[in-house]
Amino acid sequence: MKTILVPTDLSPVATYALDVAVELARANRAEIILLHTVLNEFIPALDPNTGLAYDSTPFYQDALQEAEETLLKISANPDYADVTIRPTLGSSMNGLLSNIAEQHADLIVLGSKGASGILEWLEGSNAELIVRYATCPVLVIKEPVTHFNPQNIVVGIDVDDKLKRQHTYPFQLKDDVIQQFVYVLTPTDNREPDGIRDWFNEFAKSTGNQSYSLSMLHDKTVPEGILQYAESVQADLIVLYTHGYTGLQHFLQGSVAEDVLNHSKVPVLIMRV
């Protein structure tokens, strides 16, 4: 791993992600791209009093300068002195996703406070949106992490033959901590438990993971099952898999990914398959 991308909105939550990224960069001798996207200057602005459009370019230039100064200040934090951090400003009509795609990172680390209620229904999570379009693994940090060294990892699993291969994680996760797998049976899932176990045994053999446990549990929805199981075992990391541009695989279709990312209290690592 050579390059870690940290998208930031310059909020305290984004700092949680940067702290973890710095720790990973130290361990892997990687550099960090600290990316902030400033609203494009060509988006029309309306005067709230007259309703007429006005030239917002000066406001954009001020925002650009302020963002640049803030990025430089963050990068100069003495706690990050031994890590190369490259402040990067992005601005395009395509927004954040285009800027992220231009960076060619090995890992994206981002902070997310999630969304709930009507906000979740209307907007969802920027983290979930990035996950759908990212071409590399994405690590989502929800709360401050004193020392990122996950030892109690829960892996959400689905019956998908594309998972039957060795997975290269973006940072070192030893086999002896990738042991807890969970499969959630919902009321609409007609698979037989014995068939799921047979498939999982093949999966474990194909990936070389012989020390594992598979928990199958019933719940109304897959995200609720994953989150409740992770909480019950006091997991410190949840790992999920994605097909990238084509959307998330079976158990992550619809609102599942959004629910897991928005409501998890622990970091979530999304891996592409």
Automatic annotation (TrEMBL):
PANTHER family: STRESS RESPONSE PROTEIN NHAX (PTHR46268), UNIVERSAL STRESS PROTEIN UP12 (PTHR46268:SF6). Belongs to the universal stress protein A family. Pfam families: Usp (PF00582). Transmembrane segments: none annotated. This is Universal stress protein. Residues 1-142, 218-272 form the UspA domain. It comes from Spirosoma terrae. SUPFAM superfamilies: Adenine nucleotide alpha hydrolases-like (SSF52402).
